[in-house]
Design goal:
Blueprint lengths: L11 H17 L4 H16 L3 E8 L2 E8 L6 E3 L3 H9 L3 E3 L17 E9 L2 E10 L7 H12 L4
Antiparallel strand pairs: 1-2, 1-6, 2-3, 4-5, 5-6
Helix pairs in contact: 1-2, 1-4
The protein binds methionine sulfoxide.
The site of methionine sulfoxide (SME) has 14 residues, from helix 3 and strand 6.
Length: about 160
């Protein structure tokens, strides 16, 4: 089943259009949050070749590293800190075209150039964030925000 999630053709929008229903079907059959986050991270990494894809979950007033694909990452991020902590605090998606221009950006890897962070809300509260890093500048736009928000909204976690 998993190999069917690798999508190589089409532009970005077409890839999201193909990927999302498959991921929704896959995760709908599983109630374990870690398992679902793990497969979503793997599918996004394989489909788009992003540098780093992963989740941080809110635990004890901190974001704690959860399933991811890519190089080792920071394990804890405080409320309001970095792109992730800001997306948590402001409960909104943040697109960063150039991480060097984002005040307080946390550089888990010096190869990261641009980033998108999508908060995951349940009953109006942020419970986790999806964080994606690229090693290219300007890798993310409104298309990524739209589809990743849709994905996160329906994710069983
Ligand atoms: N750059 C993030 C930290 C997490 S890593 O990119 C995986 C931030 O500023 O919150």
């Amino acid at each position: 089943m998993a190999e069917n999630l690798i999508i190589n053709g089409g532009n970005k929008q077409e890839r999201y259009e193909t990927l999302l229903p498959q991921l929704q079907a896959l995760t709908a059959g599983e109630t374990d949050a870690v398992a679902n986050m793990a497969n979503v991270a793997a599918a996004l990494k394989q489909t788009f070749g992003f540098f780093w894809v992963g989740f941080y979950v809110v635990k004890e007033e901190t974001l704690v590293l959860a399933p991811f694909q890519g190089p080792l990452a920071c394990t804890r991020i405080r409320y309001g800190k970095g792109v992730c902590g800001t997306a948590w605090k402001e409960a909104r998606t943040i697109v960063v075209p150039d991480v060097e221009q984002f005040p307080g950006h946390i550089a888990c890897s010096s190869d990261s150039r641009s980033e998108i962070v999508v908060p995951i809300l349940r009953k109006g509260t942020v419970v986790a964030v999806l964080d994606i890093d690229s090693d290219h500048l300007n890798a993310f736009d409104e298309t990524d925000a739209e589809y990743l928000e849709k994905l996160c909204a329906g994710l069983p976690i």
